[in-house]
Write a structure and sequence with these properties.
Length: 519
């Protein structure tokens, strides 16, 4: 690798020499447009920069080097990559064993005044050495035999590290572009608030979890995350291991741990073929564990970025997976199991069949639904406005995430009404109130959310989302709004006020979230 980088640097320097023989130009052979040039090696660094820039008042050009899904451990820079680094104003890299090539790139850089941020150096004493835990297959890499310390490079998988690193990047950016320093400082503060909020959600989830151990049939890049929240772990390989085959002893040990700890899942990481995890499951007693994937952000592509993937969205999805992995499976005692075996099996989907009968009776006008003590009949809805009958659309969908469908009636401009059956009674789950409160639903973060929207009036696009777990049990709610009364002609633009969960966000953040939530 080092020899190859030296050859690349020789090619780059020869290009500089050729340029020196011709008309005066930027060292890269391209006229300097005056814009800031920032190069980030991996996706988390890139996304932190984009959040600090916000609407990008300094017109910075930001490059993500590892953008094709290749693991950064095996990344090899091209001559064009070296050229971008050589002439940039800010270069951000991890700084571990995988980045040995960076030394040559920086030594030959044309811009000797660039700001260079090494993540491991910024974090200092909080950087962890790689460790071998019980049952883990030791690496056969030559470098592992030298006796030199090897540090775990996956520092971005700690939200607390992310706060420290984002603040460092912001301060450097403020030095480079002093004219927009206050904007960057404000954006950084708002972003760190989001990181801190998600960190608290992780802490709460682990505190409430029945289990405190994860088991990976894979590499293990999540050392910083487990350390942050006091979790134990077992894994087939260390985080930076190049091994792909697990020994019989490793598989047997890990399968035994799954049985011993009654773990409901074996973990894998993004980009894995899951073969080792599958083999572990097949060697357990019950052979019925799930295989769940935690995303380490080592295989993010340019397409993922364009489709709205963000550091926060990945960490939020990982939190949902973590909750599932740490939930203890339900156990039945032998007496209960024996009793159930002697009972006649219940009619399949009998609860749903009973609910469907009540929904049909409601639509025929035979029964009323209970709306907090007030009876509501379909004929009354039609009498209220004939659009309930003419424009009504009927759909049956599990709106409250309890495994059984509810009846969804969308009544023209009059908002809609959703009905549920609980305890054998037909009840109103939710209802709208005209165009300022139109009911809808969306699938987001692995669940269905009921949405109250006002999108038909000038000057605003407002959505309130509730996630239910059964009738009348809302477990999470949030708002995402765009308000633009103060904009020219009440039109949506970058001057609008955008909020998410009560916090101000940028137009770019708003559009990414809207795509994630509603597309």
């Amino acid at each position: 690798m080092k020899k190859m980088i030296s050859v690349l640097m020789a090619v780059v320097m020869s290009l500089f020499c050729l340029q020196a023989c011709g008309p005066a130009k930027d060292p890269a052979g391209v006229a300097d447009d005056g814009n800031l040039k920032i190069v980030a090696t991996i996706f988390p660094e890139y996304d932190w920069v984009m959040n600090i820039l916000g609407d990008n008042p300094g017109n910075a050009d930001v490059t993500l080097l590892v953008d094709n899904g290749v693991d950064f451990h095996s990344y090899q820079p091209s001559a064009d990559d070296i050229l971008k680094i050589s002439t940039c104003d800010m270069f951000i890299y991890v700084g571990g064993e995988s980045d040995k090539w960076v030394d040559d790139a920086l030594n030959g850089a044309a811009n000797k005044d660039m700001a260079v941020i090494n993540l491991l150096e910024v974090l200092g004493d909080s950087v962890r050495e790689e460790e071998t835990v019980e049952g883990m297959q030791e690496s056969e890499d030559e470098e592992a035999e030298t006796g030199e310390k090897e540090y775990d490079e996956h520092v971005w998988l700690s939200l607390r590290n992310a706060e420290t690193l984002t603040e460092c990047i912001s301060k450097e950016l403020q030095e480079i572009d002093a004219a927009n320093a206050q904007v960057y400082d404000n954006n950084c503060a708002a972003y760190i608030e989001k990181l801190d909020k998600l960190d608290k959600e992780y802490s709460d989830a682990v505190s409430e979890a029945s289990l405190k151990t994860l088991l990976f049939g894979d590499r293990f890049p999540f050392r910083y995350l487990t350390d942050d929240y006091g979790l134990s772990y077992y894994a087939a390989f260390a985080g930076c291991s190049a091994e792909t085959e697990a020994s019989f002893e490793t598989v047997t040990f890990l399968a035994g741990k799954v049985d011993e700890l009654s773990l409901p899942a074996v973990m894998a990481i993004d980009g894995s073929d899951q073969r080792i995890a599958e083999t572990i499951v097949q060697n357990t007693k019950d052979k019925n564990q799930q295989i769940l994937t935690l995303d380490s952000m080592q295989s993010v592509t340019a397409k993922d970025v364009n489709d709205g993937t963000s550091y926060l969205s990945v960490m939020e999805n990982d939190l949902a997976v973590l909750k599932e992995a740490l939930a203890a499976p339900e156990r039945k005692d032998s007496e209960t199991e024996a009793s159930e075996e002697t009972q006649e099996p219940e009619k399949e989907n009998s609860g749903q069949a009973d609910a469907d009968e009540l929904f049909d009776s409601f639509l025929k006008g035979e029964i009323a639904a209970d709306d907090n003590g007030t009876p509501v009949t379909f004929s009354e809805l039609v009498e209220y406005n004939e659009l309930w009958e003419k424009d009504n659309t009927e759909e049956r969908l599990d709106l409250d995430n309890d495994g059984e469908d509810e009846l969804m009636l969308a009544g023209g401009v009059y908002g809609g009404i959703y009905l549920d059956v609980t305890d054998g009674k037909l009840r109103v789950l939710a209802r709208g109130d005209g165009t300022a409160d139109m009911l809808g639903y969306t699938e987001y973060e692995g669940a269905v959310w009921i949405v109250h929207s006002d999108v038909t009036h000038m000057g605003r696009s407002m959505h309130h989302l509730d996630r239910y777990e059964g009738y009348d049990r809302i477990v999470d709610s949030f708002d995402i709004n765009a308000e633009y009364w103060d904009s020219d002609k009440d039109m949506y633009d970058e001057n609008s006020d955008f909020t998410y969960r009560g916090q101000k966000i940028t137009m770019q953040e708003y559009e990414k979230l809207m795509k994630e939530i509603f597309d």
